[in-house]
């Protein structure tokens, strides 16, 4: 190699072995991450593509061919080029790894995995168990993204194992919490206050601390007041999963018996849990349709939704499809891609896509 300053020599290194190297194209931000000595983790399963993870971001890996020949040498500082260096080629490659940041959440993959490990405190002999480290080996996302998705699931880490709480167990815990809220002799737990310390003290003989903390995290807002919407939602699930559908009047009457005294039912709580339909014989009914029970495949889920009713407004269908979108803002694009948009009167609705055209 001849430069303007002095000649450079190029030879093959004694340990030349192209099979030992992979070149990765990275962004400036990711390059700086590496320079700072921060961790990069490669994750993958035998039948899936690799992914590269920082602490809080995930990059999908794709091998790209190039017409250039890319050399790996002993010189890796740009400013040293042209100073009479002896370049020893350690490898040459015709491909590199291209990274694409994954903006999706691991929520669905995590839910599908952890549902296999349902648990309540009576399952002392539960044979099937899984740890968080094992989840990291299976779910190909960064640790921070996985932990954030776990916050949305009924999961606790107990005895160094992850426990997906059975719905019947969750219903039992919520029922006891509602009873405590209705008991005016108990301080710190009421329709206006949901103090975590008070909950830990009251339920300490019944549940381990991690279960109590899950109960508080689920049914209390960050400011320490009750999350009435969450309480309404899960009590509605408990009722409708047994009844399937109820006339609106009967539903409201039964819900009043399930909610804390003085709590009005929040109709927003039905989103993603049930739909309100007008029928000829029964009038207005509330019909159970829980996103938690739906398949993780978008095509299968849409087929179910359009069997339930042939047309949906964007607002009504959103809770059932947002799992497949990077954000609320991308729901519209998902619907336009996977459904057909038509007019019903002055309103735009979505119907099942006709694949014959």
UniProtKB/TrEMBL annotation:
<dbReference type="GO" id="GO:0031390">
    <property type="term" value="C:Ctf18 RFC-like complex"/>
</dbReference>
<dbReference type="GO" id="GO:0000785">
    <property type="term" value="C:chromatin"/>
</dbReference>
<protein>
    <recommendedName>
        <fullName>Sister chromatid cohesion protein DCC1</fullName>
    </recommendedName>
</protein>
<dbReference type="GO" id="GO:0034088">
    <property type="term" value="P:maintenance of mitotic sister chromatid cohesion"/>
</dbReference>
<dbReference type="GO" id="GO:0000775">
    <property type="term" value="C:chromosome, centromeric region"/>
</dbReference>
<comment type="similarity">
    <text>Belongs to the DCC1 family.</text>
</comment>
<keyword id="KW-0235">DNA replication</keyword>
<dbReference type="GO" id="GO:0006260">
    <property type="term" value="P:DNA replication"/>
</dbReference>
<dbReference type="Pfam" id="PF09724">
    <property type="entry name" value="Dcc1"/>
</dbReference>
<dbReference type="InterPro" id="IPR019128">
    <property type="entry name" value="Dcc1"/>
</dbReference>
């Amino acid at each position: 190699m001849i430069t303007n300053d002095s000649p450079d020599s190029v030879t093959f290194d004694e340990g030349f072995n192209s099979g030992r190297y992979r070149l990765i194209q990275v962004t400036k931000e990711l390059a700086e991450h590496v320079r700072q000595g921060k961790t990069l983790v490669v994750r993958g399963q035998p039948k899936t593509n690799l992914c590269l993870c920082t602490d809080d971001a995930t990059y999908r890996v794709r091998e790209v061919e190039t017409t250039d020949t890319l050399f790996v040498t002993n010189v890796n500082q740009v400013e040293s080029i042209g100073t009479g260096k002896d370049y020893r080629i350690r490898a040459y490659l015709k491909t590199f790894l291209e990274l694409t940041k994954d903006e999706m959440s691991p929520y669905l993959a995590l839910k599908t995995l952890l549902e296999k490990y349902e648990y309540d405190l009576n399952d002392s002999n539960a044979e099937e168990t899984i740890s968080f480290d094992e989840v990291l080996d299976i779910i190909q996302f960064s640790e921070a993204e996985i932990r954030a998705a776990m916050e949305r699931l009924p999961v606790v880490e107990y005895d160094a194992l992850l426990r997906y709480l059975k719905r019947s167990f969750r219903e039992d815990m919520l029922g006891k919490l509602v009873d405590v809220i209705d008991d005016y002799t108990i301080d710190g737990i009421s329709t206006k206050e949901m103090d975590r310390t008070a909950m830990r003290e009251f339920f300490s003989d019944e549940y381990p601390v991690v279960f109590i903390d899950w109960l508080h995290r689920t049914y209390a807002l960050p400011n320490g007041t009750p999350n009435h919407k969450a309480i309404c939602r899960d009590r509605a699930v408990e009722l409708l999963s047994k009844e399937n559908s109820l006339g609106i009047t009967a539903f409201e009457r039964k819900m009043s018996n399930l909610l804390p005294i003085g709590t009005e039912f929040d109709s927003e709580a039905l989103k993603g849990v049930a739909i309100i339909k007008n029928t000829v014989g029964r009038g207005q009914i509330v019909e159970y349709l829980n996103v938690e029970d739906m398949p993780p495949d978008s095509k299968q889920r849409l087929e179910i939704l359009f069997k339930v009713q042939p047309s949906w407004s964007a607002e009504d269908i959103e809770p059932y499809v947002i799992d497949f979108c990077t954000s609320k803002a991308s729901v519209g694009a998902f619907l336009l891609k996977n459904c057909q948009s038509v007019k019903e009167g002055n309103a735009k609705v979505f119907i099942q896509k006709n694949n014959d055209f």
